[in-house]
Specification:
By secondary structure, this protein is an alpha/beta fold. It has ten helices and eight strands. The chain has helices at about 15-25, 45, 50-55, 65-70, 90-95, 120-135, 155-160, 170-185, 205-215, 245-260, and strands at about 1-10, 30-35, 100, 105-110, 140-145, 165-170, 190-200, 220-225. The protein has an eight-stranded mixed beta sheet, sandwiched between helices. Helix 9 links the parallel strand 7 (about 190-200) and strand 8. Helix 4 crosses helix 6. The longest helix is centred in the last third of the chain and has 16 residues, at about 170-185.
């Protein structure tokens, strides 16, 4: 199974890229599990789920009975119970994911929103275990759309994923966050860290990135995605069909080739 996480600064197009990659990989013949690890939970509508249906999706972090069964502690029940730190989550993808295409399924993780819950609350324990392994999944590829930064799940990422796509735009702030995210991904043990620069308007933008990172040794690879107005044409959903014949789609397919070739994405 290929396990790829998508991270970076907020607002640079992580969720849009995750949805487009899911479609492109599905078109290439892969079975794709798209995992929404961002508490904003926008991946469903971006993949084309109608907003009214997306609002009815219960994230895994709110599946109280399941969390209690697997961790031995019910969310919000307070301390005192024996918390299972490595719960068996075999089959979780099959049980809680929904089909959003012929070869794409979506699993919405949700977040830990209870104030003062701490990093050992039942919800966090379960989500971390799911991210680490997703055992029992028949899919060829897992694409995890994360919230900004990698700190939220810490070492769970290191043991489950071997490719991190660090998304940025050509702005100074986004590139600074990308550098920090790349270093953190390396520290967490993610072997391949790919820089994806979105919304590139010109060769000058590419030069800005090269100057910012010098010879780009911080990354295993880099892919530029040109600015393409058609990407926003079908919002809130995104659809590869509106990108046919565009330079953007050519560059996206190059990224698919990069992450699916031998040595990338396999864990």
């Amino acid at each position: 199974m290929m396990r790829v996480l998508v991270t970076g600064k907020g607002g640079v197009g992580k969720t849009t890229l995750t949805a487009l990659l899911a479609q492109a990989c599905a078109n290439a013949g892969f079975l794709v599990l798209a995992v929404d690890g961002d508490p904003q939970q926008n991946l469903a509508v971006t993949l084309g789920v109608p907003p009214s249906e997306a609002e009815q999706i219960v994230p895994l972090s709110h599946q109280v009975r399941y969390i209690g069964e697997k961790t031995g502690a019910v969310p919000g029940s307070g301390s005192g119970g024996l918390l299972v730190l490595n719960p068996d989550v075999t089959g979780v993808a099959g049980q809680f994911s929904i089909a959003v295409g012929e070869r794409i399924r979506l699993l919405v993780l949700g977040g830990v929103s209870r104030a003062g819950g701490g990093c050992l609350c039942p919800e966090f324990t379960l989500l971390s275990s799911v991210i680490r392994g997703l055992p029992g999944s028949p899919d060829d590829m897992v694409l995890l759309d994360t919230q900004a930064g990698l700190e939220h799940f810490g070492r769970a990422v290191a043991s489950g994923y071997s490719t991190a796509l660090v998304v940025a735009d050509p702005s100074y702030n986004a590139l600074s966050v990308a550098a920090t995210s790349a270093r953190l991904a390396r520290q967490l043990g993610v072997p391949d860290v790919v820089l994806v620069v979105n919304q590139v308007h010109s060769d000058a933008h590419e030069q800005t990135v090269t100057d910012r990172f010098r010879d780009l040794k911080l990354f295993s690879g880099v892919q530029f995605l040109p600015y393409e107005p058609a990407v926003r044409k079908s919002e809130p959903a995104v659809d590869l069909a509106v990108l046919q014949g565009t330079p953007f789609l050519d560059h996206l397919n190059r990224l698919v080739t990069m992450i699916t070739r031998t040595g990338f994405g396999h864990s």
